[in-house]
Amino acid sequence: MSSILVVTDAWHPQINGVVRSLERTAGELEAIGVKVAFLTPQDFTTLPCPTYPEIRLSLAHRGMVRKRIEAWGCDHLHIATEGPLGLMAASVARKDGIAFTTSYHTRFPEYVSARLPIPLSWSYGWLRRFHNSGQGCMVATRSLEDDLRARGFKNLQRWSRGVDEHLFRPCEGTALPPDLPRPIFMNVGRVAVEKNIEAFLELDLPGSKVVVGDGPQLEALKRKYSDVHFTGAKVGEDLARHYASADVFVFPSLTDTFGNVLLEALACGVPVAAYPVMGPIDVIGETGAGVLSDDLRQACLDALDIPADHCRQLALNYTWAASARQFLANAEAAHDRKRGEKAA
Fold first, then answer.
1. Residues spanned by the domain of 311
2. Cβ distance 227 to 152 under 8 Å?
3. How far apart are alpha carbons 237 and 223 in whole angstroms?
4. Same domain? 58 vs 128
5. Which end of the chain is more exposed for a tag (fewer CB within 10 A), N or C?
6. The predicted structure's pLDDT at residue 114
7. Cβ-count burial 29-62 (b if 16+ within 10 Å, e if not)
8. Phi, psi angle pair for 292, to nearest 5°
């Protein structure tokens, strides 16, 4: 397999785990001789998603998507998201008999239920039909795989994540105002309701709370929590220095399927405090690099005692090179499955 086309509705200017995962995986695949192309909203006229203006919804029809898929002529088609582009690409692939894989990045039903009174069973039913229509659905963790299998999802494949250990590392000094009282409890990510950030901001903790990121909930939270230091979005070396400035990384999300930010914080030598849910259970588990508890405040306080070098050692077990090889093996397995379907 020498070329892969990735169709994704999640793309720049978004800054999130999906975009970073796709870019890093593509970079590693290119390094081993596999060409990767992307079909994104930037290829079409778009309109902003309601409540999420940085998410662009593509105004394209199936013929336009088919034309681009045919023009690239890649060996494998991977559909990363369940948005307009992903839906049209899957429709084209099914109609034209093209083998394709999908990936399950976000617990979309829980995301929707946080905003609209839509039963989880309806959302999961729709997602199940979408992901089962391909030859493989890639998931990041065992707990997500077990959860989706119990809900009737098929052809599940493991695709873990990695971390840039050269960028995300312990460093001297601080990227934060030097007068912020210690200890510093930090959250990094999209500032949105599904991230459950208020569960962190409501905690009675010593020192300071810091939120790094942007999103639709940012201005409201800044008004409500005037004692919290909000930095806005950070990238690259600046982001890494912010991570390394923290004493504990607090991850209050109940809906993430993995949480790349967990690995980034750990690589910077920062222990994690989180709820014992999907994502933290898979990354932290019983490793001792963080504290998982339904009492998030106590988890934050207990995490202060965890050595930085222990956190970094755990993060070093996750590499983007291994993630890319896993992705490629899944794509090849999907083609084997497609050949078996045709033979039957």
1. 184-315
2. no
3. 28
4. yes
5. C
6. 66
7. beeeebebbbbbbeebebeeeeeeeebbbbebee
8. -110, 125
pLDDT at 47 over 90: no
Contact 210, 241 (CB under 8 A): no
List, in sequence order, every residue forming a beta bridge with 49; answer none if it has no partner. Answer: 52
Q: What is the pLDDT of residue 242?
A: 98
Q: What's the CA gap between 274 and 282, in Å, rounded?
A: 12
What SS3 class is residue 241? helix
- The H or E element that residue 224 is part of is helix 218-224
Mean pLDDT score, 147-163 = 97
| Claim to verify: residue 48 and residue 148 sit in the same structural domain | yes
Bond from prior residue into 170 cis (ω within 30 degrees of 0): no
- State mean pLDDT over 6-18: 90
Contact 289, 311 (CB under 8 A): yes
Q: What is the pLDDT of residues 179-224, one digit of tens each?
A: 999 999 999 999 998 899 999 999 999 999 999 999 999 999 999 9
Q: What is the DSSP letter of 55?
A: E
Residues 35 and 52 in one domain: yes
CA-derived radius of gyration, the chain: 20
CA pair distance 81, 282, nearest whole angstrom:
22
pTM above 0.85, yes or no: yes
Question: Which residue from 85, 90, 88 is spatially nearest to 136, judged by alpha carbons?
Answer: 90
